[in-house]
Design brief:
Helix content: over 70%
Strand content: under 5%
Largest sheet: none
Order of helices and strands: HHHHHHHHH
Number of strands: 0
Shape: globular
Structural class: mainly alpha
Number of helices: 9
Length: 196
């Protein structure tokens, strides 16, 4: 397996989950149904905060880069938000935190980037709709950072070579994010299944 095959495999195995995590309902789930700028930025800040916290201290250049990237993203979002107190840690970061082998951690990181890129695309679209091109560009740029981080993780995985462990971890992280999305929408009385 190589990097592209790995991404294709994980994306194919989690096609439904990633499709729905890339829908407009993902922001509704992210904010608990509060589709206003403040809650949306707060939800994005939570994701960035816990991404950085989860990988902080893991040995390796890729994990250091991930922690730095997430920290930079958090500061960027909080600059827009003004103030932020992190909420509960999202389930996908609980799953990522449980990985204890390098390949699994790298795979989990790739899984997170697949989810994060979908979220950044929805955030970009939201602020385009709000006629806020400056903030939409911020999230477009953050999405670019996420893609670069994914490539770095894939390069590290190619050197490690344990694609099976990485694949299992990547899928576990994506599915944890999807289960969180699904349960949150059900709790809000929204049908999670149709993509919109």
């Amino acid at each position: 397996m190589d990097a592209q095959e790995f991404v294709d495999t994980v994306s194919s195995e989690n096609k439904t989950a990633l499709s729905r995590l890339g829908s407009s309902k993902a922001l509704y789930a992210l904010t608990g149904g509060e589709m206003d700028e403040g809650p949306i930025l707060s939800g994005a800040a939570d994701r960035a905060h816990y991404a950085g916290e989860t990988v902080d201290g893991w040995a390796g250049e890729t994990f250091e880069a991930a922690a730095d990237t997430a920290s930079d993203h958090y500061e960027t979002i909080v600059d827009k938000l003004g103030d932020h107190e992190p909420g509960e840690r999202p389930a996908m970061f609980e799953t990522l935190a449980r990985q204890d082998e390098t390949a699994a951690r790298l795979g989990g990181l790739v899984g997170w980037t697949l989810v994060a890129k979908k979220t950044d695309e929805q955030l970009t679209g939201f602020f385009v709709g709000q006629a806020d091109p400056q903030t939409s560009q911020v999230f477009r740029d953050l999405g670019g950072d996420i893609e670069a981080l994914r490539e770095q993780a894939l390069d590290a995985l190619a050197e490690d070579g344990d694609w099976n462990a990485a694949e299992a971890a990547a899928s576990a992280v994506v599915q944890a994010a999807y289960d969180d999305y699904f349960e949150t929408l059900e709790d809000l009385g929204v049908n999670p299944k149709p993509v919109c």
